């Protein structure tokens, strides 16, 4: 057997072979060797899964770090911790720059996915010189820990970061997937600590969707609600196994789960092994929740959809309202995301605000960035994304921080995989609430179906808690809980290949070594290799087609049950307003309009050179509708501001820049009049025009001819007579 797999000469003979027979012989040799190498990768995969799962503090971070705060020491202990990331060799960070804090999802696996690769959120922030912090967690929760303990306790992490950087621009917080709403919960409690907040692939509007797509939103309703999580938690001795969540994700794409992921490795075994093992190191490292934690998440968010109602309240009375966040909010969404589709990861904007004017008058800046094909995990893991979206978020974060209030789309102009230097890479486009709804929006019938499922879930869960849950106290033991966890099919699919569980698997380590020493590579035009690919394509097509049919069946079943008039009447949802969204009265509108006007009045006077410089530049942009390179704008303005006012820190400069943007956006005529007063009464006023002309040459993407024309218009409006014999028109 050993020779057959490892020695290609065993299939050779002295009898001349026809070309077809020779192709088959070559293919059989290659197939046999790939089989050995594939099994060896499965052995390594199993070993690393056992190693990771045996380490309560395991991460997949590829950067060194120092833990600053351990949440286990809190008065209400939690299994989260705060770490400062160490820059790799050759990279220098500056503690005076804006700190970044990245938080990964506790949604089934261990932390570290946001820093698993060099090209990642952590890697890009470090590369750009920012101090970087990471909020991680241990695999097992603290006994008795609730999700509200996590929500309240994590605030201390962000307070510590703010304490370490008192003069830097306020921190940028990035939350991936499930960490997105947890990051926002912290900002709702302490909005004063935060600068821009980036949520990547994070579902916040849980009912929203498009019929015929993204069936995951139906899962809770099809199972009758959250009682199933209580049952699984009881079977686990009070612990809910994260492998159930990963199993749900796998079921969204059975073609990839059952076939493509393994086949793609087998087909290109010589090149894909390390990449496959790197990803599987994270995907196969399952963590746990306390049952009360997963119940809170499902009841309050995924089935209850309470996050965007403005009424989500903790036991101590703390109200978690996203509208309390004062920082710019950036959400990264993708049409290819089947876990957090655009309707859920951007729909919260339309849940909370009736129109873009309300966003603007509230003084809020909300930005979304839409990718049309990247999948959920690639939003914060893939190298291509790391070189494009993630990098642009890091580079643009200062420009985002000074954007005037409103709703925008960050449009990326650089094609995927292409790096452009010194030219337009991205720009902002004003958007409306209708643009958000176009990404996917429920009608009232669909909302009523979800509201009915939520009401039923609440009642069934109460019945379970009173009648079934107490029975588990009679036989639940740690041994039974461990057995239930270890026998989970998904965990078994990893551990069965581990040497500690299956000693026979060791044989493939020796076989793989021999295969690599005598590896035979066949012609890619081999007809049997092509036949193999065709066979694989047929399997994928079948699985995808069958999956699509099943998804439609599940969708139909969900709506057949929960739109039934008798069912809705039984649960008392036939006449209620199905989706609770924050309401705004005429008095509210008048109040926020007054507040917006007052912000303009407060910042209207020009009292220093920095205000004058940026007001002129902002007017140039407004006059000519310039699309400048965002990441260059603030960098240049801060540098020039330091020349004018050396004692100012970056936080003070950012605040001035943002306030000037608000003034120009809200009342251009008044902004010009106040600027005129300053220039006429300041002895250096005329020189400021020429300073701006010089600064404009450093802003990528802005045409100097447009600058000259805009300055002529501005000078005329200001009533100034400015001559510059050295300037060439």
CATH superfamily of the largest domain: Alpha/Beta hydrolase fold, catalytic domain
In helices, the fraction of residues equals: 40-55%
Number of strands: 14
Based on the structure given, which CATH architecture of the largest domain is correct? 3-Layer(aba) Sandwich
- In spatial order, strands of the major sheet run 1-2-4-3-5-6-11-12-13-14
Structural class: alpha/beta
In the CATH hierarchy, what is the class of the largest domain? Alpha Beta
Structural key phrases:
53% helix; single chain; globular; 10% strand; two-stranded antiparallel ribbon; 10-stranded mixed β-sheet; 3 domains; 729 residues; 31 helices; Rossmann fold; disordered C terminus; alpha/beta
Structure write-up:
By secondary structure, the protein is α/β, with parallel strands linked by helices. It has 3 domains: 2-52 and 476-562, no CATH class; 65-242 and 286-443, Rossmann fold, CATH 3.40.50; 586-718, no CATH class. Helix content is 53%, strand content 10%. The chain has 31 helices and 14 strands. The chain has a 10-stranded mixed sheet, sandwiched between helices. Strands 7-8 form a two-stranded antiparallel ribbon. Strand 5 (171-176), helix 6 and strand 6 (194-200) form a beta-alpha-beta unit. The longest helix is centred in the C-terminal third of the chain and has 36 residues, at 527-562. The chain starts with a helix and ends in an 11-residue tail after the last helix. Residues 420-424 and 723-729 have low confidence and may be disordered.
């Amino acid at each position: 057997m050993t020779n057959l797999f490892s020695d290609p000469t065993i299939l050779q003979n002295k009898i001349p072979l026809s070309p077809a027979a020779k192709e088959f012989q070559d293919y059989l040799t290659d197939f046999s060797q790939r089989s050995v190498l594939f099994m060896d990768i499965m052995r390594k995969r199993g070993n690393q899964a056992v190693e990771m799962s045996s380490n309560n503090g395991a991460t997949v971070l590829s950067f060194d770090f120092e833990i600053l705060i351990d949440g286990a020491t809190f008065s209400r202990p939690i299994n989260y911790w705060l770490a400062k990331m160490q820059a790799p060799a050759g990279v220098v960070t500056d503690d005076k720059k804006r700190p970044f804090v990245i938080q990964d999802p506790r949604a089934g696996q261990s932390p570290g996915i946001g820093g698993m690769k060099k090209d990642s959120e952590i890697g890009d922030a470090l590369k750009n010189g920012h101090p970087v912090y990471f909020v991680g967690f241990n695999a097992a929760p603290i006994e008795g820990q609730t999700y509200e303990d996590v929500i309240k306790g994590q605030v201390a992490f962000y307070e510590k970061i703010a304490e370490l950087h008192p003069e830097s621009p306020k921190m940028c917080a990035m939350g991936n997937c499930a960490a997105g709403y947890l990051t926002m919960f912290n900002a709702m409690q302490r909005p004063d600590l935060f600068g821009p907040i980036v949520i990547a692939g994070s579902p916040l509007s849980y009912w929203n969707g498009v019929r015929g797509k993204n069936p995951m939103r139906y899962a809770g309703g099809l199972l009758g609600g959250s009682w199933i999580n209580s049952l699984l938690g009881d079977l686990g001795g009070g612990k809910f196994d994260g492998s159930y969540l990963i199993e749900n994700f796998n079921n969204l794409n059975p073609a990839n789960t059952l076939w493509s992921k393994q086949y793609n490795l087998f087909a290109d075994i010589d090149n894909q092994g390390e990449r496959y093992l790197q990803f599987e190191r994270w995907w196969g490292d399952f963590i746990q929740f306390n049952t009360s934690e997963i119940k809170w998440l499902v009841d309050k968010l995924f089935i209850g959809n309470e996050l965007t109602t403005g009424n989500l309240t903790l036991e101590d009375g703390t109200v978690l309202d996203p509208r309390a966040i004062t920082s710019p909010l950036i959400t990264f969404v993708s049409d290819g995301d089947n876990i957090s589709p655009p309707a859920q990861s951007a729909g919260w904007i339309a849940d909370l605000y009736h129109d873009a004017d309300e966003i603007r008058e509230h003084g809020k800046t909300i930005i979304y960035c839409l990718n049309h094909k990247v999948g959920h995990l690639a939003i914060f893991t893939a190298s291509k994304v790391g070189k494009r979206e993630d990098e642009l978020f890091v580079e643009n974060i200062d420009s985002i921080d000074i954007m005037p209030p409103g709703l925008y789309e960050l449009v990326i102009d650089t094609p995927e995989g292409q790096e452009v230097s010194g030219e337009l890479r991205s720009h902002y486009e004003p958007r409306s609430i209708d643009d958000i709804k176009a990404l996917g929006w429920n009608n009232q019938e669909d909302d009523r179906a979800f509201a009915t499922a939520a009401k039923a879930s609440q009642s069934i869960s109460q019945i379970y808690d009173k009648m079934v849950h107490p029975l588990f106290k009679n036989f639940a033991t740690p041994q039974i809980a461990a057995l239930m966890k270890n026998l989970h099919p998904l965990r078994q699919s990893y551990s069965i290949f581990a040497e500690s569980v299956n000693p026979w698997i060791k044989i493939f380590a020796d076989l793989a070594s021999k295969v690599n020493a005598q590896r035979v590579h066949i012609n890619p035009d081999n007809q049997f290799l092509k036949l193999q690919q065709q066979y694989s394509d047929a399997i994928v097509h079948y699985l995808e087609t069958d999956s699509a049919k099943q998804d439609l069946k599940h969708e139909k079943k969900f709506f057949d049950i929960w739109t039934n008039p008798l069912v809705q009447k039984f649960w008392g949802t036939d006449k209620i307003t199905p989706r609770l969204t924050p309401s705004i009265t005429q008095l509210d509108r008048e109040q926020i309009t007054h507040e917006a006007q007052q912000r303009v009045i407060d910042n209207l006077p020009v009292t220093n050179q920095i205000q004058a410089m940026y007001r002129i530049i902002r007017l140039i942009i407004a006059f000519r509708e310039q699309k400048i390179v965002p990441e260059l704008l603030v960098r240049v303005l801060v540098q020039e501001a330091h020349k004018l006012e050396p004692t100012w820190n970056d936080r003070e400069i950012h605040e001035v820049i943002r306030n000037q943007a608000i003034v120009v956006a809200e009342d251009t005529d008044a902004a010009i009049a106040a600027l005129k007063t300053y220039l006429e009464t300041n002895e250096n006023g005329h020189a400021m025009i020429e300073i701006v002309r010089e600064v404009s040459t450093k802003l990528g993407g802005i045409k100097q001819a447009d600058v000259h024309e805009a300055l002529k218009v501005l000078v005329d409006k200001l009533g100034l007579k400015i001559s510059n014999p050295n300037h060439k028109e």
